[in-house]
Write a structure and sequence with these properties.
The protein has 263 residues and is of the alpha/beta class. It contains 12 helices and 8 strands.
Length: 263
C-alpha cells in the first residue's frame, strides 16, 4: 500500500479528486490541488459531487426495494462513507457488492476498507474491457450472473471517449440477466457550465483518465440501450426520482441521471 501511494501520490486521479470534493480523507495534495482548480472553474463542483453521491444512495435503495441483492459498481472510486456496501448491507446483511476502478490507489484503499467484509470486494479493472470484468474471479465468486444485478455507472462515463464508452456499456448490459438495473449519472453539455469545459478537460487530461466531457441528453439516453427507463426518466441528478432532493440549482448542476431495467 505504501509503495502504491508513493508511486501515484504526485499525479492526481479522478477517483481521489472526487473523494476530495466530497470532503474525504483518501486523497493526496495533488488531488486536493486539482479539486481546488476544478472548483475555481465550476464553483458548483462540490455540490455536484454530493448530489451524485446522494443519487447513488437513492438508486441503491430503489434497487433493494425492487429485490436486487447484488451490485456491480464500476468507476466506484474509494468506498468511503455512504457507499454501496454500507447502504445495501445496512438493509440486507448478505448483499453482495463488487467495486471496479482503474486507479490502483483507490482499489488498494478499498481493499483495506473491505478487508473484513466477506460480501464485498474491490477489483482493479478497466471498464473498456467488460468481459474481463464479468469474468473476473471476484465478480464470479460474489455475484450470481443468473440473478438480477444492479449496475452502477455513477459520474464516470464522461471520463470515457465515445468509441470506448458506448460499446463497453452495451456489452456490460448484454452480460447481465433480465431484470437487472443500470443507474447512470453523467455530465450534460447543455448548461451554463459549458464555458468551463475546455479547462475541465485539460485538468483531467493530467490525471488517470484521457478525457472529461459532457454529452447531450440524447447521447446520454443512448447508453441505456433497450432497457426500460424507470419514471421519471432522465432528469437532473438531484431531482431523481420525485423532484428536488435537497438543495440544487439545475442551472449549476450540469449532471443528469436515470435508471433503466433490462427486460
Amino acid at each position: 500500500m505504501g509503495n502504491a501511494d508513493a508511486d501515484y501520490s504526485s499525479r492526481p486521479s479522478s477517483a481521489r479528486i472526487y473523494d476530495a470534493l466530497l470532503g474525504g480523507s483518501h486523497n493526496f495534495a495533488a488531488d486536493r490541488e486539482a479539486a481546488k482548480r476544478l472548483l475555481a472553474m465550476i464553483p458548483a463542483a462540490g455540490e455536484m459531487a454530493r448530489a451524485n453521491r446522494a443519487f447513488l444512495n437513492r438508486a441503491v435503495q430503489f434497487m433493494l426495494d425492487a429485490g436486487v441483492r447484488q451490485f456491480l459498481d464500476i468507476g466506484s472510486g474509494i468506498p468511503t462513507v455512504g457507499n454501496v456496501h454500507e447502504i445495501a448491507q445496512r438493509r440486507v446483511d448478505d448483499a453482495r457488492v463488487v467495486y471496479i476502478d482503474i486507479d490502483p490507489v483507490a482499489v488498494a484503499h478499498a481493499g483495506e476498507i473491505l478487508r473484513d467484509n466477506r460480501f464485498a470486494a474491490a477489483v482493479q479493472a478497466d471498464m473498456r474491457f467488460p468481459e474481463a470484468i464479468l469474468g473476473h474471479a471476484s465478480v464470479r465468486r460474489l455475484l450470481d450472473l443468473e440473478q438480477p444485478i444492479g449496475l452502477l455507472l455513477v459520474a464516470m462515463l464522461h471520463f470515457v471517449p465515445d468509441d470506448d464508452a458506448y460499446p463497453a456499456v452495451e456489452r456490460l448490459l448484454a452480460g447481465l440477466p433480465p431484470g437487472s438495473y443500470v443507474a447512470i449519472s453523467h455530465g450534460v453539455s447543455e448548461t451554463a457550465a459549458d464555458s468551463a469545459l475546455d479547462g475541465v478537460a485539460d485538468l483531467y487530461r493530467r490525471t488517470d483518465v484521457s478525457t472529461a466531457t459532457g454529452r447531450s441528453r440524447s447521447q446520454i439516453t443512448r447508453f441505456f440501450g433497450d432497457t426500460v427507463l424507470v419514471p421519471p426518466g432522465l432528469v437532473w441528478v438531484h431531482e431523481w426520482p420525485a423532484g428536488p432532493q435537497g438543495d440544487g440549482d439545475p442551472g449549476d448542476m450540469a449532471v443528469v441521471a436515470a435508471i433503466g431495467q433490462k427486460p
